[in-house]
UniProtKB/TrEMBL annotation:
Belongs to the peptidase C14A family. SUPFAM superfamilies: Caspase-like, DEATH domain. The keyword Glycoprotein does not apply. One of its GO terms (biological process) is apoptotic process. Residues 6-96 form the CARD domain. InterPro entries: CARD, Caspase-like_dom_sf, DEATH-like_dom_sf, Pept_C14, Pept_C14_caspase, Pept_C14_p20, Pept_C14A. Keywords: Apoptosis, Hydrolase, Protease, Thiol protease, Zymogen. The keyword Glycosyltransferase does not apply. This is Caspase-7-like. PANTHER family: CASPASE RECRUITMENT DOMAIN-CONTAINING PROTEIN 18, CASPASE-3. Coiled coil: none annotated. One of its GO terms (molecular function) is cysteine-type endopeptidase activity. Residues 105-207 form the Caspase family p20 domain.
């Protein structure tokens, strides 16, 4: 089975690529067509780019626009590069941003997000955390991951959820990712009941599940 390359291009990485991006993007029209087709760019984006007076200025403006769309737009960006035959730019991407994936559903992302706590005075409601969940879910779903969300769990329920997920077979997965989002104390994550789950306990659970 051929491995698919999964790209995650950070803003910092793309900024370092600026000079080479301008140098090697020799068919900007084809790239713009592909990027418009896959939703990476809008018609307004393209009109702004093409209003620049020369080719290099167009490429620099394109770079500025793409910078704002990464890392979420990594897959669409690389797809547009491939379809417009800009393999030189792809080879310049940091190899650390590429991870070989062979399964259609690459793996699981487990999200535990505690928002409201029993003792609101000691542990205020984590307003806005739903936006973080939404962003993470959108990103990993686009990369063909199965996202599992657990909300407002006690310390015991968090441990049970981690045990459950760790016990699942990884035979048909390339990758397993876990996000723990809650209030914390030194060496611990806090459940909605105010009880603490030690990170050492979580590490032991995950290590036991590793083949």
């Amino acid at each position: 089975m051929n491995a698919e390359k999964l790209y995650y291009i950070s803003k910092n990485q793309f900024q370092k690529l600026r000079v080479d991006f301008v140098k090697y993007l020799d068919d900007i029209d084809s790239f713009l067509d592909e990027a418009l087709d896959n939703g990476l760019l809008t018609q307004s984006n393209i009109e702004g780019i093409m209003s620049e007076k020369d080719s290099n200025s167009q490429k620099r403006r394109l770079h500025n626009i793409l910078y704002k769309k990464l890392p979420d737009g990594s897959r669409e960006f690389v797809s547009a590069l491939k379809k417009s035959e800009h393999e030189e730019i792809i080879t310049l991407l940091d190899e650390q941003s590429v991870y070989p994936m062979k399964f259609k559903t690459h793996g699981r992302v487990v999200l535990i997000n505690n928002v409201k706590f029993d003792d609101e005075e000691k542990y205020p409601e984590r307003l806005g955390s739903e936006k973080d969940v939404e962003g993470i879910t959108k990103l990993f779903t686009a990369f063909n991951f199965d996202v599992q969300l657990y909300s407002n769990k006690t310390a015991e329920e968090m441990e049970d959820s981690i045990l459950k997920e760790a016990a699942e077979s990884t035979a048909n997965e390339d990758c397993f990712v876990m996000f723990l989002m809650s209030h914390g104390a030194l060496g611990n994550i806090v459940g909605v009941d105010g009880e603490k789950l030690p990170y050492s306990t979580i590490n032991k659970i995950l290590k036991k599940s590793t083949p």
